[in-house]
Amino acid sequence: ELILDNSSLKVVLYFSYVEKVPWKEMCPSVLPPGLRVIEELVSPEEEKMLLENINWTEDEVIPHAQKSLKHRRVKHFGYEFRYDNNNVDRDRPLPGGLPDFCTTILAKCLKMGYINQKPDQLTINQYEPGQGIPPHIDTHSAFEDEIISL
Fold first, then answer.
1. Any alpha helices (H) in 35-137, and if so which ranges?
2. Which coenzyme or cofactor does it need (predicted)?
3. Is residue 75 part of a domain?
4. Angle at CA 45, nearest 5°, toward 62 and 47?
């Protein structure tokens, strides 16, 4: 229960913890053309492996691959996504390509037909508690036909 300053209004806030958000009940029944929601693509073991392999504390040897932005930290692989122009510089690939820890999941996506070609760019965002994803539209013009969001 919370009583707001200068008000006799009482606000009650309830927290519910769920293992899985019932997105089908919360979202429109018709998804935008081309959008697919794939449930349980990543196993708990794969999720753990991904999180263990993303090192936010190491000194980066790849220039411009890791940055701290206003509401998050971000790592780029393959190409740096440039937020100043919402694009990538195709003439300046980052050394090393995509990290090896993505190989299994990308192979699964290719095998299942979720994507038609292996991606050449990866952006990983880390949000701290209390931060959120602000409203935005992903820039598709910087890439080919497919965008994967995990």
1. 44-53, 103-111
2. Fe(2+)
3. yes
4. 45
The domain containing residue 61 runs over which residues? 44-126
What is the per-residue pLDDT for 17?
64
Number of domains within the chain: 1
| Domain assignment of residue 23, yes or no | no
What does the pLDDT read at residue 110?
Answer: 94
Nearest Cα neighbor of 122 from 78, 65, 60, 58 is: 78
Greater pLDDT, 32 or 99:
99
Give the residue from 93, 64, 63, 88 showing the smallest Cα distance to 78.
Answer: 93
CB 62 within 8 A of CB 72: no
CA atoms within 13 A on the CB side of 11: 6
7 found inside a domain: no
CA–CA distance, 54 with 101 (Å, rounded to integer): 9
**In the sheet where 66-68 sits, what is the strand order?**
66-68, 73-77, 122-126
